[in-house]
Amino acid sequence: MKNLGYTFYKDYFSKLEILQENNEYKPVFDGNKVSDKLYNTELNNQTTNWINQLFPLNTNRIISCELQTVYPGLLIGSGYIHEIGSKYKDSNNKNLVQNELKLGFYFDYTTGLPLIPGSSVKGVLRSAFEKAVVSYDKDWNIIDCKKLDCSKKEIKKKIKFRASQYIKELLKEITKKDWTDKQISALEQNIFEGKNIEDKDIAVYQRDIFFDAFPVDTNNENGKFLANDYITPHKDPLKNPVPLQFLKILPQVTFQFNFRLHDFTDEDDNVLLSGDQKKELFKQILKDFGIGAKTNVGYGQFSEDPEQAKKEKLARQKADEKARKKEEERKRKEEEERQEKLLQEIKNKEEEEKKRIEEKRQKLEQEIKENGLENILKDCQYLNEISKYLKILKKYQPNKNISDYQEALKICVQNNMKREPKKWKRKDKANWKKIEHWLGKEIADNWFNELT
């Protein structure tokens, strides 16, 4: 395929003739003789193969989406000059310049393909973040400018941002959560100004990039994707309008929009809007707003190719399923780590408790070795303390038991009765039950009768 940009701006005027009459140079031109070269150009796989090489999917964060033009088509670059601008007529009162494509068109210089500049894509997307003239205080509470005691210049400084309801609803639909004006303001700065949520500059290689959009496919007969069209401005209601012919991209031509997108995160690096979610946001804005010239009369509108939409839906479902499994695996691992940590804590506590009991046992054992159990029992202040010494006694002196230390135990009971007489008044009290358990009922009864 020839370079269409060269064909449109150079070859197109190769048939231009100059007629000299009465020292005047008059251009003679018929656009129909050269326009067919443009209209009959086919868009095929060989034409667009280099695009897939330039933007390989799933590498370097390149994220693509494909949208298809709808009737009446797409008009880009109409501000460029293309018409000859002659008003000379022949003897039959016919214009010497006929069937001219009067509006310019935008082509890629290298490939010659029509394209949508990345700057235009970025501009359309940013226009969706329409700001409302509302003032906020430093805590992002809405305030009334009329009540502020300050000049208009100072009031403008206080006007920060209030997101349009359109963007709020779109983000809520994509992320399934509500967004604040502050978050949307930070998102706009992140996408279009290269700043993070703390309003600090992001490194260049971490910023979002908007590439030119190229046509990659067409559903029109014989692979056609260019055609002519007319607009008819009515400058004077009393004169016949003069139709203006121009070049356009036909409906049902698929454009590939390419971006390099990064996740948008909060201060704690939690992802608020992923790169893929940004793509969904951009795609919906392009479908709703359109792009190029004369969008108010229908040009520049896009829709999703049903087959492509189906493929993307399946791809999203697979990605969501993969993300869900990944999240489940993460939670499972977290639960396993939590359980393992809990079991380790229980094990550590058990070991600490065993260590404490062993240290206590060793201390008691050392005390028995140094002082003797008989002396310990005589000095024992509480009857409950005797039980722990008895456990040590079984290990330290397995051939002896408490009955071998009756006299010492009797002294202990007497001391306890003097200190806590109420606990020894009746025979059914717990203390006498312990004596009965240790020495037998007969000795317990004798001591009760003797000591009380």
Question: Topology of this structure?
Answer:
Layout lengths: L3 H6 L7 E5 L2 E7 L1 H8 L5 H10 L7 E8 L27 E2 L19 H10 L7 E2 L5 E2 L8 H7 L6 H11 L5 H13 L15 E2 L3 E5 L7 E6 L12 E6 L3 E8 L3 E2 L5 E3 L1 H15 L12 E2 L2 H66 L1 H7 L5 H12 L9 H14 L10 H10 L1 H11 L1
Parallel strand pairs: 2-4
Antiparallel strand pairs: 1-2, 3-11, 3-14, 5-6, 7-11, 8-11, 9-10, 12-13
Question: Summarize this, please?
Answer:
By secondary structure, the protein is an alpha+beta fold.
Description:
By secondary structure, the chain is of the alpha+beta class. It folds into 3 domains: 4-129 and 164-304, no CATH class; 325-371; 372-452, no CATH class. It contains 14 helices and 14 strands. The chain has helices spanning 4-9, 32-39, 45-54, 118-127, 152-158, 165-175, 181-193, 275-289, 306-371, 373-379, 385-396, 406-419, 430-439, 441-451, and strands at residues 17-21, 24-30, 62-69, 97-98, 135-136, 142-143, 209-210, 214-218, 226-231, 244-249, 253-260, 264-265, 271-273, 302-303. The strands form 5 sheets. Strands 3, 7, 8, 11 and 14 form a 5-stranded antiparallel sheet that branches. A hairpin with a 5-residue loop joins strand 12 and strand 13 (271-273). Helix 6 (165-175) crosses helix 8 (275-289), helix 9 crosses helix 10 and helix 9 (306-371) packs across helix 11. The longest helix has 66 residues, at 306-371. The chain is rod-shaped and about 155 Å long. Residues 145-161 have low confidence and may be disordered.
